[in-house]
Amino acid sequence: MIQKDVLLTSFNSFGVAVKAPWFVAVDSEKSLISILKDSRFENAWVLGGGTNTLFVDPPKRGIIKMNISGIEIVEEDAQTALVKVGAGVDWHHLVLWALEHNLSGIENLALIPGQVGAAPIQNIGAYGVELKDVFHSCRFVNRDSLELESYDTDQCQFGYRDSVFKNALKNKVVISYVWLRLVKNGHSLKTGYGAIESLLDSWGCKNPSAHDVARAVIHIRQTKLPDPKELGNAGSFFKNPIISIDMYKKLLDVHPDMPSYPASEGFCKIPAAWLIEQAGFKGKRLGDVGMHDQHALVLVNYGSGTGKELVAFSQKVQKKVLDLFGIHLTPEVNIL
């Protein structure tokens, strides 16, 4: 049912109060194609969980809420299972479903906010695992032809928090289903990133399972990150910047404690949270917006902050980090 002048406060995790001129929820590819034919939804913005969207101005176009559901194993062998997932499925719900079915591969991605349809767009990742590690394919509606098409891993052109859907196909397709290849037996768990290993050791987990890894990730995220239902945020606001090894070595002369992680050959990744904290923004607040006091990478709305105020604050952070380190921070969040 198409609705008019819908307040989007509860449909975006920042809790920004803007109205959509038109709003509709779709629960099938058929209804999605039908809506895309409607002139009110020409160039419509598609919302999943609203956890990666910051509304600065009231949208001038219709909003499509993605509600395509369903999780099923469509193919399996002795080692793996191919799982088909609707774009409207909550990502963390999928992680829990996989664990319940003794399937591994996405346990490190537990508690990432948002829906499955957005996962390929962002190539979501955490604690040493990215979606591309388990991705098989996805299906989408081409906005121009209104036909269904499918892309495999290579066609998606995955990069760090990047894909073809953020570049050549940006706003040109709407993902409806995702297929993941999960592991039934012999999966090599990744526990060496962040605090997972030390936390598991403190729990006495000498031979951790995928369930244990997910439990550790959930504990870490709940300790560090505010619940969007209680404090408006979209998780990590900026990407971790990737710089050349040469630049990193020069920065080490001035900042000898600057941490880094391996990236592609000749480059390394710098934790954006560390840069922001060094710039003095961890816990800093201006009015009803600021950076969280437990995690410097999380921009928060303390109540009635507007999209314009949140963006203005993020730009202050960017300027200070650029002035101090010569590094530009790029937002992960879609700013509309």
In short:
The protein is of the alpha+beta class and 336 residues long.
Please, could you describe this protein's structure?
By secondary structure, the chain is α+β, with helices and mostly antiparallel strands. The chain is 25% helix and 26% strand. The protein contains nine helices and 20 strands. The strands form six sheets. It has a five-stranded antiparallel sheet with strand order 6-7-12-10-11. Strands 1-2-5-3 form a four-stranded mixed sheet, covered by helices on one side. The longest helix is centred in the last third of the chain and has 19 residues, at 307-325. It starts with a strand and ends with a strand. The mean pLDDT is 93.
Please give a handful of descriptors for the protein shown.
336 residues, alpha+beta, five-stranded antiparallel β-sheet, four-stranded mixed β-sheet, 9 helices, 20 strands
Please outline the major beta sheet: 5 strands, antiparallel
Given the structure, what is the number of helices? 9
Average predicted confidence as pLDDT: 93
Rg, Cα atoms, Å: 20 Å
Percent helix among the residues?
A: 25-40%
Detail the poorly predicted runs: none
Widest sheet: strand order?
6-7-12-10-11
Terminal CA distance reads: 24 Å
Strand content: 25-35%
Q: Per the principal axes of the C-alpha atoms, what is the gross shape? A: globular
Please provide the count of β strands: 20
Q: How would you classify the helix and strand content by structural class? A: alpha+beta
Q: From N to C, what is the helix and strand string?
A: EEHEEEEEHHEEEEHEHHEEHEEHEEEHE
